[in-house]
Amino acid sequence: xxxxxxxxxxxxxxxxxxxxxxxxxxxxxxxxxxxxxxxxxxxxxxxxxxxxxxxxxxxxxxxxxxxxxxxxxxxxxxxxxxxxxxxxxxxxxxxxxxxxxxxxxxxxxxxxxxxxxxxxxxxxxxxxxxxxxxxxxxxxxxxxxxxxxxxxxxxxxxxxxxxxxxxxxxxxxxxxxxxxxxxxxxxxxxxxxxxxxxxxxxxxxxxxxxxxxxxxxxxxxxxxxxxxxxxxxxxxxxxxxxxxxxxxxxxxxxxxxxxxxxxxxxxxxxxxxxxxxxxxxxxxxxxxxxxxxxxxxxxxxxxxxxxxxxxxxxxxxxxxxxxxxxxxxxxxxxxxxxxxxxxxxxxxxxxxxxxxxxxxxxxxxxxxxxxxxxxxxxxxxxxxxxxxxxxxxxxxxxxxxxxxxxxxxxxxxxxxxxxxxxxxxxxxxxxxxxxxxxxxxxx
Length: 443
Hints:
Layout: E1 20-24, H1 27-30, H2 41-46, H3 64-78, E2 82-86, H4 89-92, H5 99-110, E3 114-120, H6 134-150, E4 156-161, H7 163-172, H8 187-206, E5 211-217, E6 221-223, H9 228-251, H10 266-276, E7 283-286, E8 291-294, E9 301-303, E10 306-308, E11 315-317, H11 334-347, E12 354-358, H12 369-387, E13 392-398, E14 417-419, E15 426-428, H13 430-442
Parallel strand pairs: 1-2, 1-13, 2-3, 3-4, 4-5, 5-7, 6-8, 7-12, 12-13
Antiparallel strand pairs: 8-11, 9-10, 14-15
């Protein structure tokens, strides 16, 4: 069990009254397939041999479906203000499947914690396809159903989680569900997810929601050198992974040259952008690390467990001189400060208040001092961005529990709580105690 002496020696800076401390999870990664849940694209993907590195599936995962009361008790002991979870669209599509989220939200509220649902976290119902425009309309219908059922207790909503990664990994490179390798022909999946976001904002507003955001993944892009070819490649990467998903949401426009690549006529894309750019109450940022990018090298590159094809117009390079997580990701806390101040400078008053909707790392062990050091550094980096004038309203750790880490299976442990995937026993790690103290002292 974690102890109360886990706080670092340096005093943590104070955060403003009302700053939201929370933890995050997602349905497919923790719930399991029990109860009323239809199949998702991830069920089909994990059933194919070789798709998941350890050959596992999320059929059981953490069995949160049956053990949610135990997990909410962990939230209560942790003392967080908010719990970010996701609603499984395939579960809601099953008659009676929404009952589980009724029970979960009641339990979370009874524990004095704010429920913050994410309405799409990659588990698309089987038979739907983000390459098809109609999926965006179907998503809005589903959102209306969920908001109608949970809106009396839920104030804060998230439409989508990381459409950039879902497009890149699932549709361009094929390492996530649905397993397509379309490269730049995957861009319709990006546009239709963004359209779904805008339609979901409208659906939530119609249901009376007044606290709506999105969780987009972002990180600074560092040129490998000052060489013009490296700088040009880095600018393209930044456009592809950052601006293509932030600009339309925050400004109602795609970056120059991108809109022409999206499905539909210029007039249709312009009409879609009016929907995509629906004003938000806050903007969610998932941050893990910067990316160092250079000109293409004419060969495949292994990066973060993903093979990048040689034909891409950039290459990803190692960030040297930094400690690495067990996932091989560099630990760069100041990248969060750089990212947030950069967004403020780029978007100005178009940037609403920011919430860090994910930040975390993969490390083994119960005495996970490396995770404590990681989180400590990033919370301080976040505070420096706030001192520099960025309006940040909250911070969510990824994740409450060790879970099914997508194509990595159960090999990567991001949780503040250790899960024995044989017995399903939960054991708080040292980082759990550290974060509990941080929340207490941060107030």
